[in-house]
Amino acid sequence: GAVVSQHPSWVICKSGTSVKIECRSLDFQATTMFWYRQFPKQSLMLMATSNEGSKATYEQGVEKDKFLINHASLTLSTLTVTSAHPEDSSFYICSADRDWTYNEQFFGPGTRLTVL
Amino acid sequence: AQSVAQPEDQVNVAEGNPLTVKCTYSVSGNPYLFWYVQYPNRGLQFLLKYITGDNLVKGSYGFEAEFNKSQTSFHLKKPSALVSDSALYFCAVRDMGNTDKLIFGTGTRLQVFP
What is the mean pLDDT of residues A32-46? Predict the structure, then answer.
């Protein structure tokens, strides 16, 4: 149990276009979902925290208008990279909180975004 | 502010030998500590956690970690390394009841040589 999926697993897009990444909790309802960004050979950087039905809380330095997060249901959160540029190329990983008995976050497999 | 330090960028060990990946933390409240492993182009897999109780925590794939409050450390260990253990390991701390955020260390690449 506690499986988190992401779609797509990789995407290549042209500069200026928008890309949507989906994060789903497959066998549980996620009270909170998180979006991370990972640069090559670096650690995970928390971008935002997302609660179902409310606006996401963004970390300092993360552009809200560029990285749109929608948490439509207890099993789905989406990250849209708007007007993507090559510097947005990265590995994006989502995670989900299950409930208070699980203290650990469950991570998706990640999405590799390449902006040409 | 909470933080996690992994002082070694890379750890090399021969197959069959014991391994240790170091982690120290700083948190204002009670630390919830985690180890995750990441294989190339993959998400993170949970290995083990310390919340409370016994300081020695056993996790997946034969890994264990020891919580040391006085040294604020949570080192990851395995008695006998396998080549398949080669991956990127992240220590993380969660300041439950405060920010609830999961803060990661910079990661340690474990290389196990046959």
Answer: 88
